[in-house]
Amino acid sequence: MSTSDKIQLWGGRFASGPSATFEQFSESLSFDQRLADCDIRGSQAFARALERVGILSADECSTLLAAFDTLRQEARTPAFYDGATDEDVHTLVIRKLKANVGALADKIHTGRSRNEQVSVDTRLWLREQIDATTSLLVAFLDELLALARRYESAIIPGYTHLRRAQPVLWPHYCLAYFEMFLRDLERLQQARARVNLCPLGSGALAGSGFPFDRHAIAADLGFDGITRNSMDVSGDRDWALDFLYAASTAMLHLSRLAEDWILYSSEEFGWMELGDGVTSGSSLMPQKKNPDSLELIRGKSGRVFGSLTSLYVTVKGTPMTYNRDMQEDKEPLFLAADQLAGCLAMIREVTATVTLKPAVPALAAEESWTVATDIAEALARFGTPFHQAHKLAGRLVLESLNQGKKPLDWTPEELAAFAPEFTPALAEFLHPARGMQNRSVPGGTAPAAVAAALAEAADRLNAFRPEPSRS
Ligand code: ARG
Q1: 129-169 residue pLDDT tens
Q2: If you measure from the C-alpha of residue 250 to the centroid of ligand 1, how many angstroms do you get, rounded to a whole number?
Q3: Residue 159: enclosing H or E segment and its boundaries?
């Protein structure tokens, strides 16, 4: 691009132009070019608004709209950006428009500021990103529910402090993650509601000097409504922070799931086998099968949390209203959105290809006194005060450890000799599957409660599917 082609949206008041250092330092085109399609759509809606207030004639408006249509096509190809040294995407689009329609392009920015334009572009982009992320998350949760159902009656030890605690059903464990991710879907929708408001008409900070029908512009761009204060629009990035928080929490949940499955698929746990397609080998150690996909999910969560922190710190301390600091919002936003989308696609594949070896966790639950609580509670149900029952069950565990006995090694006679409270009815509770049946409160791990929760989960997930395929 020759310097004579170059346009600037603000040159008049300056005797000389920006230095090369400042130009290079302050440009945002290298990253905000990603907003080009949204910028052009926003400008098309704005052209229609300018026609409605009489700044553009019907002919001028249709000339601009047609030129913008061409630019939209061109903006999908790398050539559109080749050699461009414009300050930002808004300047690039106007330069291209001018090359296409000439002086008429000078009217498009009437009563508009880049402060509201950058807000509208980023909101449009983020709305689409949230919808795409929602679909990816729903697709992953479909797989998670399928994985829960594949081993519906498998028993695993549930852990606290990473020590075997109480037996639970495998689908109960899967549903715990389902709950976390369903809240993430809710948080994404809550963020979307705040993102999906139209700021156009706010001007630089004081409201536009032209009598735009702001509701009509909002409807034109598919927004649910309009923002309510022009100063707020220029300085506000809460809506981006809302998304970053939702994205960070989803990454937090993905990271914890990744950590679980890295452990469960290790030789030390040995209950899970990850698909060959999502693992990698070692260049030196021929036997290795490493859980890199899960490690990367865990690792990438750090970058997403960093994006949230980055924007928080960027906005903190900026005086009302717009400050150029705000240009620093986009890279963390893009990074977080990209990483979350990539991690969701990856975890879906890991979930679809993982296999459980149910006998291994079942044995782990059986041989390690995860039933001790069931026994104490059964004693309490048969009349022993709980503190005494707890002590008695604890003594049974200690005695077993001393004798090198597993729970199911005890015969009814030996138990009765240990303490008269240990009747044959009580001995049933040495089997992990027995005590579980009593945990039938809503949210508990009894088979009936888990089956009900699984059925409800499928219904609850349906509420987040896009309208047409909602079943
Ligand atoms: N590139 C700028 C940004 O992302 C656009 C707004 C510029 N506004 C201004 N007053 N310099 O924030």
Answers
A1: 999 999 999 999 999 999 999 999 999 999 999 999 999 99
A2: 30
A3: strand 155-160
CA separation, residue 357 to residues 17, 47, 148, 354, 446 (Å):
69, 62, 13, 10, 21
Distance 114 CA to ligand 1 centre (A): 6
CB 372 within 8 A of CB 391: no
Convert the pLDDT of each residue in 353-385 to its tens digit.
999 999 999 999 999 999 999 999 999 999 999
Please confirm, yes or no, whether 161 is among the known catalytic residues.
yes
Pocket test of ligand 1: the residue of 38, 114, 233, 320 to mutate, having most ligand atoms within 8 Å of its CB, is 114
Q: How many CB atoms lie within 10 A of CB 348?
A: 19
d(CA 455, CA 445): 14
Does residue 234 have an active-site annotation? no
Full set of structural domains in the chain with CATH = 20-110 (1.10.275.10), 115-362 (1.20.200.10), 365-460 (1.10.40.30)
Tell me the DSSP string of 115-137: HHHHHHHHHHHHHHHHHHHHHHH
Question: Of residues 161, 283, 469, 471, which has the active-site annotation?
Answer: 161
Q: Is 163 helix (H, G, I), strand (E, B) or coil?
A: strand
208 lines ligand 1 (CB under 6 A): no
Per residue in 6-38, pLDDT (tens digit) is 788 878 888 888 999 999 999 999 999 999 999
Query: How far is residue 23 CA from its own chain's centroid?
Result: 35
Find, among 461, 459, 470, 469, the residue nearest to 138 by Cα. 461
H-type helices in 320-385, by residue range?
A: 330-353, 359-367, 372-381
Distance 338 CA to ligand 1 centre (A): 23
Closest by alpha carbon to 108, among 45, 165, 152, 157? 45
Ligand 1 and 326: CB distance under 6 A: yes
Question: Whole-model pTM?
Answer: 0.95
Is residue 35 in contact with ligand 1, taking CB distance under 6 Å?
no
Between the alpha carbon of residue 420 and those of residues 164, 192, 203, 392, 397, the distances in Å are 28, 62, 83, 11, 16
**First-last CA distance in the chain:** 52
Centre of ligand 1 from the C-alpha of residue 28, in Å? 9
